[in-house]
Design brief:
mainly alpha
Length: about 180
């Protein structure tokens, strides 16, 4: 693929060289320098817009796919050594790439979940980020026969890591009966 920015700069340089030879050197050189600067700014701006559109398309794919959550992005971001936003972009890229790439993404997710669960006190998908309170932790501790609300909170967070939010919701619903 031809790099349009480089091509434009080459053409501008070529024309500038011809002008330098044909006209007074100082006037032609100044004019050529100004043209190169203008073209360079236009090319940079176009590349930034294209990149922004591409990033936006990837983020849109992440959000519209509907299978993955903020917690999934945090887990994969941690696994990949990236921010949550960067993980969402990469996940969106894999979603857009199709079935084969999605299969890789699903395996990455499993590997990332296993890594996150290897920590005795995982600190990725926080209890409070899901909207739960201390009273919820107390109710879950009683329901799950945990020694403390802290242990129930950790158990809930492990379920969040595995994408099993419904287990926590169901336990809390039953605990409040």
């Amino acid at each position: 693929m031809l790099n349009t920015k480089l091509f434009s700069l080459f053409i501008t340089w070529f024309i500038s060289t011809v002008l330098i030879v044909a006209a007074t050197p100082s006037k032609a050189a100044a004019q050529a320098a100004q043209e190169i600067e203008n073209l360079s700014a236009i090319a940079d701006n176009s590349a930034e817009i294209l990149l922004a559109q591409t990033l936006q398309e990837k983020l849109d794919a992440f959000f519209s796919y509907g299978k993955y959550t903020y917690c999934d992005a945090k887990i994969l971001g941690n696994y990949w050594g990236q921010s949550v936003v960067d993980a969402k972009v990469l996940m969106g890229q894999k979603i857009l790439a199709g079935e084969r790439s999605l299969a890789y993404l699903e395996q990455y997710q499993v590997d990332a979940q296993v890594q996150a669960l290897s920590d005795p006190e995982p600190s990725i998908c926080f209890f409070y980020e899901k909207g739960y309170t201390y009273d919820d932790a107390v109710a879950l501790a009683e329901f799950w026969f945990k020694e403390s609300p802290w242990e129930a909170k950790l158990q809930a967070e492990k379920n969040f890591i595995l994408g099993k939010d419904e287990v926590v919701e169901n336990a809390l619903r039953l605990a409040r009966r």
